[in-house]
Design brief:
The protein contains eleven helices and eight strands. The two termini are about 35 Å apart.
Length: about 280
């Protein structure tokens, strides 16, 4: 496992493949870089793929983030610079979508394209009168989970988070014990991330400035609130394309890796932004 020091912080990463455009896969909350293990080798046939543990996750240093979205974006920029792998296609899952959008705004020279899956911008729901009540309830629910974590009730908090992003009862019970343990261990980081306003509501001032290609995906089987978030976010992305993934939910890279990798491969190879 290679490690790079980024702004004095040790970041663990892996590289798959040696040919093709640089592509970095950014994991969501509660997990680490190994959540991409089924997809990275598939993309590596035609791309140079990087996976890494965001600060405080997996084998990277457990250094607090005063401003999680911006700190994670800054860490990612530093990692890509240290590896000399940029501009890169950035593929991001869930919370990491906010990180990817922030990176593309702050460091546009680092990014060729974005592929983001189901950003949990629950604050968007509050802007639409038709979903305002639901949005307020979800924001309050996220705060209740953060309070559980603050009281040390990490197992209960992790179960609630998993339940929010699943449409089927018993989602927690179906997880392998190792996954459950990882989620409980990482739930403090979830509280840190979802305490950042930019993780739940996009920066509307920066979105109109993004001109690069953006693939915005949502799983057919995902909770309806995620579909509504994608619907509301899409008009703010000038060069965005929305795709619904059949028979998939919140984690297509885990449950439908070949299908998801095929979709990503088509987007990344056919909608490449030339380096100027």
């Amino acid at each position: 496992m290679p490690v790079r020091s980024v702004h004095g912080i040790d970041i663990a990463y892996d590289v798959f493949g040696k040919a093709g455009d640089p592509t970095v896969l950014v994991h969501g909350s509660l997990v680490d870089r190994h959540s991409w293990d089924a997809v990275a080798p598939l993309l590596a046939h035609s791309l140079e793929v990087v996976t890494y543990d965001r600060r405080g996750h997996g084998e990277s240093a457990p250094v607090p983030r005063p401003h999680p979205v911006r700190d994670d974006a800054n860490d990612l920029a530093g990692l890509l610079e240290s590896l000399d792998l940029y501009p890169a296609h950035v593929v991001a899952h869930s919370y990491a979508s906010a990180v990817a959008l922030r990176l593309a705004h702050d460091r546009p020279e680092m990014v060729r394209s974005l592929a983001i899956h189901e950003p949990p911008y629950i604050g968007l729901l509050r802007r639409d009168p038709a979903t305002a009540t639901e949005g307020e309830a979800m924001v309050a629910g996220a705060e209740r989970i953060r309070q559980l974590i603050g009281r040390g009730e990490k197992l209960a908090a992790a179960r609630e988070v998993v339940g929010i992003f699943s449409t089927e009862p018993g989602a927690w019970e179906r997880l392998p014990p190792a996954a459950q343990a990882t989620f409980v261990r990482s739930v403090d980081r979830w509280a840190e991330e979802f305490g950042d306003p930019e993780a739940v509501t996009p920066d509307f001032d920066s979105l109109p400035e993004l001109l690069l290609p953006v693939l915005l995906t949502v799983g057919e089987l995902s909770p309806r609130f995620l579909h509504r978030i994608v619907r509301d976010l899409a008009p703010h992305l000038k060069n965005g394309k929305v795709v619904q993934i059949p028979d998939a939910g919140h984690a297509p890279h885990v449950t439908r890796p070949h299908q998801y990798a095929g979709l990503l491969g088509t987007f990344l190879l056919e909608r490449n932004v030339p380096v100027t």
